[in-house]
Each structure stands twice: as C-alpha cells, then as structure tokens.
Amino acid sequence: MSDAVAAIVERADALTSAGEWNAAVELLERELERHADDASLLTALAETYRYLNRHREALQLLTRARELSPDDRQVLLLIGVAYRDAADIWAALAAHKRLVDLYPADSQAIRQHALTLTVLGKPDQALPVLEALVSREPDELAHQVALGRTLLRMGRYREAAERLETVVEAGPDQLWAWIALAETYYQQRRMTDWKHAVRRAVELNPDHPAVRVQDSHVAFYLDGDIGRAITDCERALAVNPRWFSAHVALGVLAWNGKQLDLAEQNLTQAAQIAPWSGVVLGVLAQFRAETRRGKVPLDALEDKVAELPYGGLAGYLGRICYDVFDDNERAVRLLEIAVRTAPEDAQSSYYLACAYHAVRRYDDAAAAAKRAVDLLPGFGEAWIILGRSYVVLHRYADAVEALERGLARLPDDPVARGSYGVALSGVGDKRAAIAAYEQALAALPDEGTLLYNLANTLYEVGELERARGFAERARQHVPADDANLGELLQLLGM
User: Fold this and answer.
1) Is 324 exposed, middle or buried (0-12, 13-18, 19+ CB in 10 A)?
2) Would 161 be classed as within a structural domain?
3) Please, are residues 379 and 373 in contact by the beta-carbon 8 Å criterion?
4) What is the rounded CA–CA span in Å between residue 198 and residue 214?
C-alpha cells in the first residue's frame, strides 16, 4: 500500500468512526477510480459496503482483491465473512482455514474461523477454540459474542443468554449480540425479552437481513401481522437474495396461508442456496412429509445428521418419524441425537418422550418429559405425556399432579382427560375419575378403553346398571378376547 493510499484509507476510517458512512463510500469509490487495482482500497470499500448491507457489491470487490493479493490477511478475513453471508459456507471455511494457517496467532482470524464452523453446524469444534480465546482476551466483546452464538447453536441456552446479556450491558451497540440474544430468548420462550431484543437490533441496523428475519418472526408469531412479516422477509432478500433464512421464513408463511406452491418454491430455493443447513433441510422435509408433496429421503437425510449432528436436522426428522411416518424406533434414534446436541431444547425432549412412550420405554419417557417441563414449565403437552407415562408406571399421585398442570393449559384434550381419570382412580378418588371419563367420552364416544374404564369404575362404586350400559358399549369397541373386559362382564352377570 502506497503512502497516498494509506492516507485515503485512514481518512475513510475516520469518517466511518464518526458515523459518516456515505462520505467514506464516496471517498473510497473516487479513489478507486484512480487506483483500480489496489487491494487495500478494494478491501476498505468492501468493508464499508458490508456495514451498509451492500453484500453483493462487497463480495465482488473482495473477489477482485483476492485475485490481486490472495494471502492478504484483511482480504481473507473479509472474503470469508462475505462468503458466509452468501451461504457459500465451504468457500468461507476454506478462506478462514487459509487465514488461520497463515496467521495462527491472530485473534480475529481465530474467531472468524470458529464462527464459520459454528454456522456450518460444527459448534462443538468451535467451542474450545473460542473458550481459549475468551480466556486469553476476556475484555474483547466480539469474542464473547462469538462464544454466545456458539453456545446457542449447541442448545445451551442459559449459558448463551447469560453471556450475551453481559455483552449488551457492556456494549449496547453490539448488533450480533442482540440478534443472537433474540434467538436465544425465543428458544427459551421468553417472549417479552425476545421482542425487546429484536427491537434493539432493529434500532441498530434496521436493514440487516438477520434483523429483518427476526422481526418477521415477531410480526407473525407475536403480533399476528402476516403482511408485515412478509414485507420484512422481502426487505431481507432485497438486501441479500441469498439470505436463506428469509426464504425459509417466507416458505413457512406461505405454508401457513395454504399457498403450497409458493411455500415449496421458497423452501426449495433455500435448500439450493444452503444444502448444508440442517434447519433448511429439516423444514423442507417436514413440509414434504406433512403435505405429501414429494418424497422425504430419510436415509440420505439421516446420513446428513451423522455428518453434522449439531445442525438441527435430527430434531426435525425425529418429529417427522413420530408424527407422520409412525416410525418410532427411528424417531427415538434421531431425537436422542437432537437432545444430546441441544440439551435445553424443550421441543426435542418432548418429542423424545412421545417416541419413548410409543415404544413402551416409559421410564425414559417420563425422564424426557420431566426435562421438557423443567425447561419450559408452561409446556402443556409435555406435562400431559409426563402424566401419561406416570400412569403406566403406576405413579398415580405424580400423574394426577402432572395431568392437572397439563389440562390447565389444554383442557379439551380427551386422551389426557382419560388418563387423568385413571390417575384419579389410582389414588382412590373414584367419583372424580368417573367425571373425567365422562368428559373424555363426550369427545371420544366410541373409545373402547375409556368405555371399559368408566364401566369398571362405576362397578367399583356400586352403580351396576350404569356399569352394564357402558360395558355393553365397550364390548362393541374392544377386542373380543380382551381379558379385562371379559372379567368385568362376568362380574356384571353379562
């Protein structure tokens, strides 16, 4: 870099430090017309473009700069980030690997390489590197943010939140800290905190694609404003057409609106842009499974899980296997990976509990469900599967407590109401059990087990005529060789 060019770059840095980004762009663009092949000017202008969310132009400049100076530290650093923004993750990884090979003691190089590993779905490899970096330079907020983002990707939400909260307290202008904190709060279902974090990110950089996507989620899931949610995603893609999470968000919005062609178009495009992303592949697989639009290549996708277990795909596939394909053994296998790689993800623990219950591993089901409700005490469905598991394990008092907490949130669930009846009967409250069975039968009038349970409990309290009536109905819906019903029929003289 000549002295004249160095002076120009220094003046541009002063302008950006003063917040005069457009003036810096004008200065650098003007000088670049005079020094078209200067890698330092190209890099400085690219960095300014990135701050102004001009991602495509930044990548074009950095590509030219790398042709001129392939091993320049700043070029490799920024082009790796630019590739990452463009979802060209393997190119980003190659650039940042080259960077750390050339500059092994450089903190920024180490951090960006680790972040690229995290985005790819290898946060377990990034974690020890970032922990060492933070230990060495604890006052560098960018290191703390990177570590928080990595903990988030490992499903360690409490640690991520604590670290990122410390960062935004010390540096309220740390954009990526607010973005990562927003996602962490969402995973913890801390909705008020989530919305606040998104608002702070919007204040800092309203046009950043990651900010717009987070704001679209708030608009849809909290505010019910689908129009604003769509506009947010469109704004993200206007800035960076390869921001794949915006395509995913648009796909999900279209899916919810039953615009299946548009949903498929957006989700397929996201998968073409980021075929390495477990979340993208998982949402697309869920869409195909639930809408029956195309085949879900489970074997190939399970291979992807083995390759990148922290990518989030295992949870999606496990839920699909349980909910759609009734392949509970595979669901267990996948959801065990999901829970191991995201231990504080309550949804994965809940679905693992359901899958364990389906394969009659009731102790494991209870443990997984208990983990889910410990993480999210308001998780009604998890309380219900916990209670149902306790019923099978004859832990009736625990079942009553769990089912009451679940039914307080989901009072119209007839299966849970029927299990509640069994639990009440188990603790000796026969009259309350009868009421629970009757409520469940109002929704499921031909459910054989409910009819038998009600008939049996009526017999136990001495209401023989009513017991006979429900036993007769049960006989129409329970297998003829059912021993329990046969014994009850004998006792009732039928």
Assistant:
1) middle
2) no
3) yes
4) 7
Q: What is the pLDDT of residue 214?
A: 97
| 212 part of a folded domain | no
Domain count, the chain: 2
Q: Which of 54, 73, 104 is the last residue of a domain?
A: 104
pLDDT, position 1: 57
User: What does the DSSP 8-state code read for residue 137?
Assistant: S
Stretches in the chain below the pLDDT threshold 50: none
Cα–Cα distance between 352 and 365 in angstroms, integer? Answer: 7
DSSP 3-state assignment of 414?
helix
List own/partner pairs for 155-161 with CB under 8 A and 24 or more apart. Answer: 155/187, 155/341, 155/342, 155/343, 155/344, 155/345, 156/343, 156/344, 157/184, 157/187, 157/188, 157/344, 158/188, 158/344, 160/184, 161/185, 161/188
DSSP assignment of 147-190, as one string? Answer: HHHHHHHTT-HHHHHHHHHHHHHH-TT-HHHHHHHHHHHHHTT-
Confidence at residue 241, expressed as pLDDT on a 0 to 100 scale? 95
Domain end marker among 104, 132, 152:
104
Is residue 289 in a domain? no
Q: What is the pLDDT of residue 36?
A: 86
Residue 468 to residues 59, 457, 463, Cα–Cα distance (Å): 78, 11, 9
Burial per residue of 217-247, b for 16 or more beta-carbon CB atoms within 10 angstroms, e otherwise? bbbbeeeeeeeebbebbebbbebbbbbbbbb
Instruction: Name the residue among 424, 361, 413, 360 with its Cα closest to residue 384.
Output: 413
Q: What is the pLDDT of residue 13?
A: 86
Q: What is the pLDDT of residue 4?
A: 79
Provide the residue range defining the domain that includes 476.
Answer: 412-494
For 429, phi then psi, to 5°, come to -95, 75
What pLDDT sits at residue 16?
Answer: 87
CATH number of the CATH domain containing 486: 1.25.40.10
User: What is the pTM for the complete model shown?
Assistant: 0.91
The pLDDT value given to residue 107: 97
Query: Which residue type is seen at 68?
Result: L
Whether 426 is covered by a domain: the verdict is yes
